[in-house]
C-alpha cells in the first residue's frame, strides 16, 4: 500500500501528549508508516503551531496539564472547523469522549491502543484533511479565475493563455515584464497581479517612466534627503520605498534614463535603495512589474537599454495580444464597454446593427482595447455611428489571404457567440456545412 506521505508530502501529524513515553511511541509508529510527525507536551505549546489551513491533523490526549484536550479541541475548531482532531482518552472516559465528538472531534482512540490502529485512524484523518485543503485551494483558484475573467474579458485562446499565466504567477514574488502595444491593457494586468497576490493589502505604486523629465525620475523612484539638491527642503520617500511590501509598476520602462537603469538593477539584485543625499542602505521587499511597448532586446542590442537590466526583468514575460489578433473578443468587449458607459452616463443601451458589428470586426484597432472602449462610449452618447473610418492611423499591411482569414475568423466567432456555441444553428446561419464549420473552428483555435 502506498504511504500517505507520498501522496500528500506537505501534510503532517501534530501530537499533544504530556507522557513522554506515550508521545515517543506514537511518534515512532507514525514515522514508521512514512508520515511526518511532531510532538509537544502541552496544549499551550501546540496552539501557536496551528493556524488557518494547518497542513495536517492534530492528535491530543484528553488529560493534559494546564489547558486540557477538550479545551484545545474547542480552540482549534473555532479557528478551523474542518481540522481533524483525534482525541486519546483513558479507559472509562466514555462521557468525555462523547462530549469531544459533539464538540467536533474527528475520532477518539481509547487507551490502550495498538500502533496499527493509531496509524489506520491517522491515515483516514489525513485523507480527509487532504481533500478539504484541496477543495479550499480550488475554491480560491476559481474565485481568482472569476475575478480575472471579469477584468480581462474575452474567450480567445490568446487572452485565455494570458489569464492562465497570470494565475500561475500572481501569488509569487517573481518580478514580471509585460509586453504589449499601446492600449492592450498592461496596467490592468499589473493591477490583477497585485490584487490576486498575498501583497494585495499593501501599496500598489505606479510610475510612468515616460511621463517625467530625466532630472526628476531619480528622485521620484529613490526619494531624497533634505538638502540633497536645490529645492529639496525636506525628506521625501520615493516610489520604491513607498511600495515596500507591495508592488511597484513601472510603465514605459524603455523610457528610463541609463543612469537610473543602473540604480534600478541594483534594487532588483540586492533589494536595497539609497535616497539621494544619503549613504544609508534601506532594505525594500517589493515586487517589480515593468511594462513596455518596445522590444527591449532590440533596444539593448542598439545600446539604448541596458542588457543586464533586460535579462533581470525578463524572468516571467506576459505578452498581451493586439486586439486585431483576437477579433473574436471584440463583440464581448464592446458590449461590456457599452454597459459600463450606459451606467456611467445614465443613457439607454443602444443596439448594435449587423453592419456596425461587421465594421467593428473589420477595423484594425491600432489603439487596441482603449480605442474600442472610446468607440463604445461614443456610441452610447450618440456621437458616432460609423466605425469604418474611425482611425487616421496607418493600418497594418496584410496580404489578401490574411485579411480574408481574419474576417472569416471574426464572423465565425461572432456567430458562435450569438448562438451560444451551438454548431448546428451556427452552420445554418453561416450557410456552410457543419463539418466545414468544425474544421474552421479547429483551424482558428475557436471555442464552440
Secondary structure: elements and pairs:
Layout lengths: L3 H4 L4 E5 L3 H13 L4 E4 L2 H4 L9 E6 L7 H11 L5 E5 L4 H10 L3 E4 L4 H37 L5 H13 L6 E4 L6 H10 L8 E5 L5 H9 L16 H4 L4 E5 L6 H13 L1 E2 L8 E2 L3 E6 L3 H6 L5 H7 L2 E4 L10 H16 L8 H9 L5 H13 L19 H19 L4 H8 L3 H11 L4
Parallel strand pairs: 1-2, 1-3, 3-4, 4-5, 6-11, 6-12, 7-8, 8-11
Antiparallel strand pairs: 9-10
Helix pairs in contact: 2-6, 4-5, 11-13, 14-16, 17-18, 18-19
What does this structure look like?
The structure is a single chain. The chain folds into 4 domains: 4-136, Rossmann fold, CATH 3.40.50.2300; 152-319, P-loop containing nucleotide triphosphate hydrolases (Rossmann fold, 3-Layer(aba) Sandwich); 333-394, Helicase, Ruva Protein, domain 3; 398-448, Homeodomain-like (Arc Repressor Mutant, subunit A, Orthogonal Bundle), CATH 1.10.10.60. Mean pLDDT is 87; it is low at 1-9 and 389-395. The radius of gyration is 30 Å and the shape is extended. By secondary structure, the chain is an alpha/beta fold. The longest helix is centred in the first third of the chain and has 37 residues, at 115-151. The strands form 3 sheets. A 5-stranded parallel sheet has the order 2-1-3-4-5, with helices on both faces. It has a 5-stranded parallel sheet with strand order 7-8-11-6-12. Strands 9-10 form a two-stranded antiparallel ribbon. The protein has helices spanning 4-7, 20-32, 43-46, 69-79, 94-103, 115-151, 157-169, 186-195, 214-222, 239-242, 258-270, 296-301, 307-313, 330-345, 354-362, 368-380, 400-418, 423-430, 434-444, and strands at 12-16, 37-40, 56-61, 85-89, 107-110, 176-179, 204-208, 247-251, 272-273, 282-283, 287-292, 316-319.
